[in-house]
Amino acid sequence: MREHDNMWPPNLKCLVMLLMLMILNVSGAFVGINVGTDISNVPSAVDIVSILKEKKIQHIRLLNSDHQMLTALANTGIEVMVGVPNDQLLRVGQSRPTAADWINKNVAAYIPATNITYIAVGNEVLTTIPNAALVLVPALQFLQSALLAANLNTQVKISSPHSTDMISKPFPPSTATFNSTWSSIMLQYLQFLKNTGSSFMLNAQPYYDYVRGQGIFPLEYALFRSLNPDSQISDPNTNLFYTNMFDAMVDATYNSMQAMNFTDIPVMVTASGWPWHGAQNEQAANVDNALAYNTNLIRHVLNNSGTPSQPNNQVSTYIFELFNEDLRAGLVSDKNWGIMFPNATTVYTLTFEDMGTTSADSAVLRGTFCVANSSAPPSALKQSLDWACGPGSANCSAIQPGQPCYKSDDIVAVASYAFNDYYHRTQASGGTCNFNSTAMVTSTDPSHGSCIFAGSTGSNGSSGGEASGSISPDNFATQTQLCWLTHLVATLLPILVFL
Ligand SMILES: *[C@@H]1O[C@H](CO)[C@@H](O)[C@H](O)[C@H]1NC(C)=O
Ligand SMILES: *[C@@H]1O[C@H](CO)[C@@H](O)[C@H](O)[C@H]1NC(C)=O
Ligand SMILES: *[C@@H]1O[C@H](CO)[C@@H](O)[C@H](O)[C@H]1NC(C)=O
Ligand SMILES: *[C@@H]1O[C@H](CO)[C@@H](O)[C@H](O)[C@H]1NC(C)=O
Ligand SMILES: *[C@@H]1O[C@H](CO)[C@@H](O)[C@H](O)[C@H]1NC(C)=O
Ligand SMILES: *[C@@H]1O[C@H](CO)[C@@H](O)[C@H](O)[C@H]1NC(C)=O
Ligand SMILES: *[C@@H]1O[C@H](CO)[C@@H](O)[C@H](O)[C@H]1NC(C)=O
Ligand SMILES: *[C@@H]1O[C@H](CO)[C@@H](O)[C@H](O)[C@H]1NC(C)=O
Ligand SMILES: *[C@@H]1O[C@H](CO)[C@@H](O)[C@H](O)[C@H]1NC(C)=O
After folding, report:
1. Among 381, 436, 437, 438, which residue has the most ligand 8 atoms within 8 Å of its CB, making it the best to mutate?
2. Are 489 and 356 in contact (CB under 8 A)?
3. Is the beta carbon of 444 within 6 A of some atom in ligand 6?
């Protein structure tokens, strides 16, 4: 009973704040995953669906409309994007009856049991099969008419994924424009999206730009790790700072649309990932980078922070991809973007920022701190720091420039904050204070001034990270965030949890 009494007021407060958030039109972005099957030993549809369920994946993008998959996905609650493959585009775009037939056989036949919500028509059509460019918009229109006839136009949205190569000069984002070769088709495409309330689908792959840039872009910038102000990039026209290439790509897309006078079409990222293995000359394709990229991308999307130019527009994103596809043409790296082998063995473990644990500091650790060993080489500390703030999912906000624990010239202090935050978040589930032997446990509280370390018992020191269940009544922003996170965990957000 007592627990009950204590629980209600915060919940009520949460409810009120969530309503306010809804009024403010803030909605959550989701993270889904691409499920390609260009694989010599394709797992059965039933096996694929059980992998999805086990990983609590709620949104998937199929590159086709495989009927066994659509059947296996029935009554799972998983939201499905189906695809019209490029080799079917000509037929669909040249014949209204063929398009109607496509909708009936591949979409209408499976709804409502299978929750199909998007159709991606072709993939990177203008940049990969330009000879089919003229049928792209007719295909969209024919498919839309067929959806309308089947009364499915509100349940299912139609669009077509584009490569960032469509943007001729992507940087700075404020002056980006689409390649003018395709202006008339882009104009019709954007008009279609506007008329139907659909999204611009973007395949955003910082990996390729990083590799092609040959050192122009820091790796940190590609991997969402721009702790260092020197590796952030500013847009000279807007003075907006870009801490990662992903945001710059999305903003370049918004601005390219704006240059054509379309301002209210949302961007959805239909493919983004990083290969974990490549040939000898593909050094950037490795497990560390793939893990860091995908972990940070997921956190970035679920944080609902939008982009620098559109902070209120969340960008839902489909990770590329679930399985390695050994039959894909191309380089060694092209076959190794998966987080799993087709035999269901995990290539690397993706840990999502477990929002449920942000307020779950272990009482056992009160008064115990994990700090950097000041005798460790600075380069090793830097490496461990990058890991803690990246894949380790430590909350490194407080060590950003301008924040209480930021010290530009003291890697030991900054790393200590990150190590300690990681340790307090993860100790209960097996996290250790090791960091490649650069860290150690101490009982001396490193907190100073308003820089409070998790686990601090200082008189004013409730460390944001501890004290589960008690929401400080003073800080609306923190409360809203906590409520929002709790709510996301509880209901709204399809969170992928890779255990
Ligand atoms: C399908 O997904 C949409 C969007 O999340 C949701 O509103 C709807 O309830 C889902 N339908 C079914 C049958 O699960
Ligand atoms: C624009 O697209 C055309 C046709 O694909 C291509 O030849 C040209 O190089 C592109 N221009 C730029 C600046 O990317
Ligand atoms: C966008 O609108 C402005 C002002 O109305 C106009 O001058 C310009 O030509 C338009 N651009 C395009 C691509 O339609
Ligand atoms: C999360 O979003 C907030 C603002 O909404 C931003 O200040 C913070 O830096 C973001 N964190 C990450 C890890 O992107
Ligand atoms: C799964 O496939 C990978 C790559 O082919 C292989 O290394 C691994 O041993 C396989 N695992 C099982 C359980 O068969
Ligand atoms: C700190 O690092 C130094 C040098 O690597 C090592 O000799 C020492 O044992 C470490 N101290 C602790 C407490 O781990
Ligand atoms: C991260 O830490 C900052 C304070 O340093 C806090 O305001 C914020 O709520 C924390 N974020 C999460 C997700 O715990
Ligand atoms: C751990 O240290 C070794 C050698 O000191 C280094 O090669 C390795 O990359 C480090 N690993 C991590 C995750 O920092
Ligand atoms: C904690 O106390 C110190 C010194 O009394 C003060 O400078 C700091 O701002 C306080 N921190 C918080 C979070 O209230």
Report:
1. 436
2. yes
3. no
How many angstroms is it from 404 CA to the middle of ligand 9? 11
Tokens 């609902």 locate to 304
CA distance 57 to 449: 42
Q: Are residues 189 and 249 located together in one domain of the fold?
A: yes
Asked if residue 42 and residue 179 are part of one domain, the reply reads: yes
What's the confidence (pLDDT) of residue 429? 61
Instruction: Indicate if 327 and 367 belong to the same structural domain.
Output: no
| Closest residue by CA, ligand 2 atom 12 | 168
One domain, residues 234 and 383? no
Task: Output the residue whose Cα is nearest ligand 6's atom 14.
Answer: 440
Nearest in space to 223 (alpha carbons), one of 282, 294, 174: 294
Give me the domain span that covers residue 36: 30-62+160-335
Instruction: Assess whether 319 and 374 both reside in one domain.
Output: no
**Structure token pair of residue 449:** 């001034």
**For 170-207, what is each residue's pLDDT tens digit?**
989 999 999 999 999 999 999 999 999 999 999 999 99
What pLDDT does 56 receive?
Answer: 82
- Closest ligand relative to 338 C-alpha: 5
Q: Give the closest residue (by CA) to ligand 7 atom 11.
A: 395
What does the DSSP 8-state code read for residue 347? Answer: S
Pocket test for ligand 3, best of 261, 262, 263 (most atoms within 8 A of CB): 261
Q: Which of 420, 424, 481, 482 to mutate to test the pocket of ligand 7 (most atoms within 8 A of CB)?
A: 481
Which stretches in the chain have pLDDT values below 70? 1-27, 226-228, 348-366, 427-431, 458-499
Same domain for 449 and 313, yes or no, is no
d(CA 292, CA 389): 10
CATH, residue 36: 3.20.20.80
144 contacts 158 by C-beta, under 8 angstroms: yes
292 with 411, same domain?
A: no
Q: What is the pLDDT of residue 15?
A: 40
Q: Which amino acid residue places its CA nearest to atom 6 of ligand 4?
A: 305
Distance CA 392, CA 234 (A): 27
402 within domain boundaries? yes
pLDDT value for 1:
36
Instruction: Tell me which residue has tokens 């799972």.
Output: 76
Ligand nearest to the CA of 372: 6
Q: Is residue 179 part of a domain?
A: yes
Q: Name the DSSP class of 311.
A: T
Do 211 and 308 share a structural domain? Answer: yes
CA dihedral sign of residues 7, 421, 455, 429: positive
Which residues surround ligand 9 with Cβ inside 6 Å?
A: 449-450, 452, 460
pLDDT digits (tens, 9 = 90+) for 412-436: 999 999 999 998 887 666 567 789 8
